[in-house]
Amino acid sequence: MAPRAVSIIAALSVIGLVIGPVTAVVLRAEAFSGFRPADWQAFRFTLVQATLSALLSVAFAVPLARALARRDFIGRGLLVALLGAPFILPVIVAVLGLLAVFGQTGVLNRALSPLGVPELQIYGLQGVLVAHVFFNLPLATRLILQGWLGIPAEQFRLAATLGMGRRAMWRCIEWPMLRRLVPGAFAVIFVICLSSFAVALTLGGGPRATTLELAIYQSMRFDFDLARAGVLGVVQIGLALSAGLIALRVTSVPVAAKGLDRHAPRWDTAGRMMVLVDAAWIVLAALFLLTPLAMVVLNGVAGLSDLGTSVWQSAGHSILVALGSTALCLLWALPLATRWGEWLGLSGIALSPLVLGIGLFLIVRPFANPFDLALYVTATVNAFVSLPFVLRILRPEAETIRAEYGRLRGALGLSGWAWLWWVFLPRLKRPLGFGAGLTAALSMGDLGVIALFADPDRATLPLKVYQLMGAYRMDQAAGAALLLLLLSLGMFWLFDRGGRVGPAA
To answer: For the whole model, what pTM was predicted?
Structure first.
């Protein structure tokens, strides 16, 4: 089968996965009377929190990625890997860690109380913003860091030879890269925050802090109003796709200058003040991102020894779901790593996973018991939701490879599969490993469709944590949460280790 045919099949399958479930939900719905005041409030709050969350995440990621790109220190590779942990951390586990630090009885309030500082409030808009920056700052940092590492060392060497200062290097070398990558990173984080569910449910603080995703869940879970849920889902899809299309419109992917993959020192980073500024960004980011993880570990160590057989069985289900999601997502992403493919993939974060899951179950119910297919549907939904992230990671490098080696392919007469095996995949190894690790970890910690449809015999580990918490077996829940964290990080590291490179790469 020709590669072009594979791309067409991948595109049609993604389109079918979007149209089919949405159509199934709409056909089951009755007439919708119109937006309620609460729906307009959810609409406004969704836009405000998504915009602010994306702006803060990208604004903090730029200096952090720059510091990591131009500083080499002991433990740098481990720190870069750990900075990715918040994004791949199961949401409810991360929220518990944030509450342990920023909550009413958290570490920070206990430390500030003797000083007479007013108590920090984690609930409401400020809590949603803190949680979203916690989750998305690592993703923005990794995306921008790859851009900095992709600048050939010869450009910095030439700039130093010409006597260019820091401002000139920023204007001529670094700013063009950021202008290409930042709009895409902003759009991805914006649409992630548009689909905020667990964060808004846990930290929103009431009806005034309800997102569209949470309103969709309430419509289906409590009211079973499929018409209202469908309309809210369509509004959410329209918002996310509009943002993504605008970002893709203003984002260009110029051909990167060729280099010899050599390391050159950064002459523009000398000076004590520059070192202190970079160190401050790295230390502050590490404290903000890693302290909640440390609290999760401290609270969960004691419960590890008290895990039952059902917890380990659920862990096995999660591993199988994660591996299946990763394989399916890469099968979609490789042929779709183009501009039009990324447009198509944006539907993965525009479409509510709850709407997608319910639509799939409505489709399969006439032919099979939906509960028997809960794990398969969960793996499919997780792969689909991860697809836009993987395409955002793969596409810039993939287009650069096509532009740089296209003539070589024609000169050597390489067939489509020979080109894929000998040129395309080896050069794509670093972003491919990052994308696979991200997909596996996100799938490991997902608690969405599986919570609505799985029975106890098919529970994944995140669902098992919820069940233990609901049964007030908090020690076991903490231990299972720590196990989930270790498995998520382990899956990410296993796939991503080829992509964790230092400045010398």
So the answer is: 0.74
